[in-house]
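Reproducibility note. Readers wishing to regenerate the assembly model reported in the main text can use the exact inputs given here. Chain order matters: entities are listed in the order in which they were concatenated for prediction.
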Amino acid sequence: MLRLDYHPAGRHFLQIPGPSPVPDCILRAMSYPTIDHRGPEFAELGLKVIDGIKQIFKTQHPVVIYPASGTGAWEAALVNTLSPGDTVLMYETGHFATLWKKMAENLGLNPEFIGLPGIEGWRRGVQADQIEARLRQDSGHTIKAVCVVHNETSTGVTSDIASVRKAMDAAGHPALLLVDTISGLASADYRHDEWGVDVTVSGSQKGLMLPPGISFNALSPKALEASKTARLPRAFWGWDEIVEMNKTGYWPYTPSTNLLYGLSEALDMILGEGLDNVFIRHNRLAEACRIAVRAWGLEIQCADPAVYSPVLTGVMTPEGIDADQLRKTIYERFDMSLGTGLGKMKGRMYRIGHLGDCNDLTLMATLTGCEMGMQIAGMKLAGSGVSAAMDYLVSQRVPFNR
Amino acid sequence: MLRLDYHPAGRHFLQIPGPSPVPDCILRAMSYPTIDHRGPEFAELGLKVIDGIKQIFKTQHPVVIYPASGTGAWEAALVNTLSPGDTVLMYETGHFATLWKKMAENLGLNPEFIGLPGIEGWRRGVQADQIEARLRQDSGHTIKAVCVVHNETSTGVTSDIASVRKAMDAAGHPALLLVDTISGLASADYRHDEWGVDVTVSGSQKGLMLPPGISFNALSPKALEASKTARLPRAFWGWDEIVEMNKTGYWPYTPSTNLLYGLSEALDMILGEGLDNVFIRHNRLAEACRIAVRAWGLEIQCADPAVYSPVLTGVMTPEGIDADQLRKTIYERFDMSLGTGLGKMKGRMYRIGHLGDCNDLTLMATLTGCEMGMQIAGMKLAGSGVSAAMDYLVSQRVPFNR
Amino acid sequence: MLRLDYHPAGRHFLQIPGPSPVPDCILRAMSYPTIDHRGPEFAELGLKVIDGIKQIFKTQHPVVIYPASGTGAWEAALVNTLSPGDTVLMYETGHFATLWKKMAENLGLNPEFIGLPGIEGWRRGVQADQIEARLRQDSGHTIKAVCVVHNETSTGVTSDIASVRKAMDAAGHPALLLVDTISGLASADYRHDEWGVDVTVSGSQKGLMLPPGISFNALSPKALEASKTARLPRAFWGWDEIVEMNKTGYWPYTPSTNLLYGLSEALDMILGEGLDNVFIRHNRLAEACRIAVRAWGLEIQCADPAVYSPVLTGVMTPEGIDADQLRKTIYERFDMSLGTGLGKMKGRMYRIGHLGDCNDLTLMATLTGCEMGMQIAGMKLAGSGVSAAMDYLVSQRVPFNR
Amino acid sequence: MLRLDYHPAGRHFLQIPGPSPVPDCILRAMSYPTIDHRGPEFAELGLKVIDGIKQIFKTQHPVVIYPASGTGAWEAALVNTLSPGDTVLMYETGHFATLWKKMAENLGLNPEFIGLPGIEGWRRGVQADQIEARLRQDSGHTIKAVCVVHNETSTGVTSDIASVRKAMDAAGHPALLLVDTISGLASADYRHDEWGVDVTVSGSQKGLMLPPGISFNALSPKALEASKTARLPRAFWGWDEIVEMNKTGYWPYTPSTNLLYGLSEALDMILGEGLDNVFIRHNRLAEACRIAVRAWGLEIQCADPAVYSPVLTGVMTPEGIDADQLRKTIYERFDMSLGTGLGKMKGRMYRIGHLGDCNDLTLMATLTGCEMGMQIAGMKLAGSGVSAAMDYLVSQRVPFNR
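Running the prediction on these inputs yields the following structure tokens for the assembly.
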């Protein structure tokens, strides 16, 4: 019989860039008894999470919570705002940007995919000037939306969304701005309203520290307006009924009650720590991780320090080292999961997640596992990344967040 | 601060027709740590639940498990098999059949909605002869699918799916047969393959005893074939990639890991008890409930004993009694949730759920709550439904299922 | 392999007079991670539960919390206050009073056991005049303590502790008053200080709704004074070090951390509902139960209405009916546990627990299980206890305790 | 309001020598609903844990499980085997040996406390020749028991119990051998029968990975025989009734049901991994820890490599460094708890726990926390203990225990 509950001695280290480790208190919250989603108690829960999630997105406008995992929220952003055959400008930042583009094609849209050549495009974020240039050419406003990934989970590179907004404004182009921050939300600074984003897409299993299963669309008034005329067929994903019923704390169809319990707990944790403190912590851990990678003499996948991800770090392995074989070694020897190289980066990198419910010692455990694993795999390291990271953390003088 | 975890003394009785009470062991299973859905452990889980759920649907063919609640699975059934403007024959059995029809419209289909007149249609299941007659007229095969609800959650009436299949065969019509058994699965006898169903839609929060959040499409080879030419846009709901990757126990995008833990536990419980025993138990409890309703001198919403639902019983309230006010009284006095009258039945009935993790004494508690609540509400009852139900249960001589 | 987590469909009804059903939120609280009982967080927990439990005992004086089950707290009360060979006056109210007396003998004390003759003593509480008379005879003050059980778990009879205090005062006797309210605390009114009790003994698994495993000694200044000269050997049970360290929220040795988490939650629940409301609820449920027993035409074990227990009701079975066989039938048919007849009452009664996390519908479920079980066992009942209990509850007009 | 469930971002590292971190699956097992400890299900649980725990102690004879924490099991060992005024030979190995001696005095025994002078006695285990010499002098057999601590939690020094047995045999002395392995059981090799121990005392919150709250006495036939004539008063701790009732899987009084659920799970984990594998893992982690301490240039409290503890390592801090201030720094900066120096070692050492549910990366996290904390505290370290420990672990080539 399958023993799901079996685990070997000691904790598994789940250091992939999501799902991130779910804190015990969230798992406990998820085990509250399921209640009637039409009953009086539910409205309290509904109103609380709807209000709280807006604070995380930094928006005054509606945020739709879907009882579906993140890929669904990608689809929702497209089908609510666009019509069959619409041209959308999408920017290639990595594997997930590529998958989103493929989804747009499947839905009958006409994505135009721009970016930097080769893997160079996977090592730097969005180049807003390319977007601006393309939009200036589009005097007929054929392009209906610009789609950008804020935090590329496949590379550890973020994109400067404010610069994209500026580029669109500079070009005087009316396209909608759709942003995926599935893996960035609640780990990396994000400002839906201030940055003028029309639809922000996110998920539960990253910075929100929940299991996968619910996802989000944060809206702008312009996006809501666009949804009135958009002609892609939609029902489950339709914003209007949800936004309307959410005013009373309910959903038009059955929401994912127990994941909403978890979300309520996650909001208490994050807003209790303070979003700014959460970002500071992520930045400190990410910096410690990059210091380790440099000390090892390895290359960080992200080639532009201005857009390092606070969520994960992509580590490029030298010629002759199969990164997936290395990950397997580390898994088997140290019970730690690391992220694989995806798409163009298959076998050439591994990804270290340092997001969500992570602290200094968990990161150090992770780095020791990587360092030992690389030694076992016979890699020659320039020096001890662990020592370098410890030096950095010692210098920081930050108490843990009580 | 919202205290989600607060509950007054004693257990809440959640006797709505879903979400049904989630057993402790399923809640515990859902609190296992979230694992990497690309790691080696996950495949074991994936293969187990994919195999197990087939046994519940009684099918040899693929069952797609969506990380989305039941309404999504309705949409999936339509968008995978149909093209814009397609005519679908839908049968009005109640509120949920009506909502499914509305969804078909929203997705750009052309539903033809047939049924019995007035509320009569909500008190009897599908009339297969009406379907046969309509299909015989459709010599050009404009109708691409027949859509039927197996267990109408809004009424407590089931439909004879085998008779629909026979009607379609008798008419020699090639339309697909799409069936919603969201609230019937694992409570009422259901046979996907034997009954020749092409797509069966179901959800987690009813007979499977899970919280809401995952849902199902059981497929036939004919449905899979149809999906190759169906032209409604789709991505998230697309069967092909999921069916392909499921062969190794994985999903193309992030599944709802912790609900799959719960599903694994639910399958152990249900297959451990034995599906036939589960059905016998549901039938016994439903019969006890109906005996009580009759003893009270009230009318059962389902007017045809051949299609009584084993999942829930709709109780019609006499003129002058607002069923929702009665439900409120019972909730406030006895901490019990009952189902409301939906759509055409608003205020004229209440629904008693007796599905899932229910046993004799829980049902008796429920009936005492109803009987006392009706007395408090000033209703004159013909007799004690509680006494009548006890007499029936005493006569049954069935040990509980150890 | 033993599957502890296995349960058949539906909830087990644990209607014994303790352990009482543990609410989910207490089980969840018990699953918080174990912390360092010498660390800074622990003191907060320690101080909270020490303060809260005093409110339950209604005392201003120290309450010692032992990491041991209730029998240990009996021993603690004796060894902290008495010396080898000391005479103690104990009153026979039932099986547990008898066990306590046996324990006193084992510890080298000289218990004098008084009471009413035959099973009559098991059907009425303490007769304070007997105690007064005996103490008046003891002019030499040989008797060092009077030991009384406040709520006899074996019978469903309480004892009037205030009357015992008055009797002792009237006799002008300096003996200590030791009271066992293991099964009464937090279900039946209890006033340690007001009633002049010197040591009150209690446990966790009854009105406090916790699993078994911790227990209590509430002290008076006189008891603390007596402990300085008492010569029975003691170490683990010794009050002095615990009382001293408790001032800072710690214990001299390892406390039962996770049960203290549960206690913290239980205190929030009980003090949140309000002790008086808890007592009112227990009295209402107990009265409903007794009304049912009378309607069945059966005898309540407690023969004096002034001392009916709000915790449990002892139901005497007629000649020719083996109460344990009946309990077995009910267990096997309805998955409900009832209490057995103990000692002198073996086979002649069963006990219905209606304490702790119980509400109207749970009690009604219990009564239907009893009534159906007795019918299956072939007992002729005078009438329906279930109907009578419903009539009573309907008349009460009390909302459940939100 | 006290928020017990609050925890800052990331896991707390509980690296004290007990309570050790409780695995999630044990916490989950402890949340199974409390059952009737007199009902049929309970016997299965009782028999399972009674049988399993014998395998852990490596004994064929009874093991008594008390619903009380470890200090109680110390008392039980003494009161079941000894009579007032009996002389017992106790050996000073550290703080806990000293506390046990104090308990013996409190219980009216006459302990004779031998050992090495000064703190030298706290840095080496039992010197069996001293015991042999003392027993040889005792030709009148005044000494009724020899009491030794197997794993001194206060120092990280074990004692060679087999050598004590040999010494007693060599002296031809009939005293009982009582051994405390509260913190050693299931982490360090232990053989109750083979080593001829008469009573072994242990607890739950160390190698068994449970919360505190239950404890153990493993018995020999000779100990059982001695209990028949031992005259210290006892009731709660009395072996005879427990041993007798345990034959059917029950206890004479209420056991700690939910901790027994946890014990059942712990036994599955430990016996599933294999006791020998558990010991190998503990030894590997302990060796890695000692290598780190030496690399730092610090002294290990245990001065005899033959008796290093696999459970914890005592680290002596240099002159001028207050070890408790250092522990506070580490707690506040890195959310890690370390053990304090006790008794004679107050402020002069800290203790690193590496027992129970621990693995390579958790140990490495711990060592990085220590190393960084010592740097922050301004200590000059000879080198990096972290690097040295990594080198050792890399060389071990042991997969984690799936």
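We highlight two features of this model. Chain B has two domains: 13-20+274-396, 25-271. The first helix of chain B runs from residue 24 to 29.
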